[in-house]
Design goal:
It contains nine helices and no strands. It is mainly alpha-helical. It is globular, with a radius of gyration of 16 Å. InterPro entries: PgpA-like_sf (IPR036681), Put_PGPase (IPR026038), YutG/PgpA (IPR007686).
Length: 171
């Protein structure tokens, strides 16, 4: 008999916002697979989903999702003051606060997340390429970094578990 875990309102809202902004768990799990399949011989998509879900259960991750997505939405609605409106709407390269929020997620499972995040942010595979496309009028200045960070953190969790070091996981 399995007991289903009760989600907090914060977690439900974070997951709902990801979905509303066009990001499915499958998209993030694919990024995790992309990052880890060369290093883990028997990696399955189920493993990737499990680790993405574990990352999404963390309160600091949920807070980062809500904060970043709200700023993206406000920028789309042109409700931010000048010059912040233009900076976020255009994803200005020297802004960097979007990466700072992402790094708060990356930190959850140790320093290996930094290299995972840096790599995935540079090559922008899968959903990250779509989120980074500015032609549709949507603003994903924070969302693309948040999604990459969730994938990087889940990949870090996988890497740590592969060497049987579960001491960093507080579940």
């Amino acid at each position: 008999m399995t007991t289903e875990r009760q989600m907090t309102d914060l977690e439900k809202k974070a997951r709902e916002l990801l979905k509303q902004r066009g990001v499915e768990l499958h998209d993030i799990a694919e990024l995790v697979f992309f990052l880890q399949n060369k290093y883990q011989e028997n990696l399955t998509m189920e493993d990737c989903y499990e680790n993405v879900n574990s990352v999404l259960m963390k309160r600091e991750v949920q807070n980062a999702i809500l904060t970043g997505i709200q700023l993206d939405i406000l920028a789309e609605q042109k409700k931010l003051d000048h010059p912040l409106q233009e900076i976020i709407a255009t994803d200005e390269s020297l802004y960097g606060i979007d990466e700072v929020i992402a790094l708060s997620i990356v930190n959850v499972y140790g320093s290996i997340g930094f290299t995972n995040y840096g790599y995935i942010d540079k090559v922008k595979p899968g959903i990250l390429e779509k989120l980074n496309d500015k032609t549709d009028g949507d603003c994903h200045t924070f969302l693309d970094d948040i999604v990459g960070a969730i994938a990087a953190a889940a990949s870090s969790r996988l890497a740590h578990r592969a060497v049987h070091d579960v001491s960093i996981d507080d579940e």
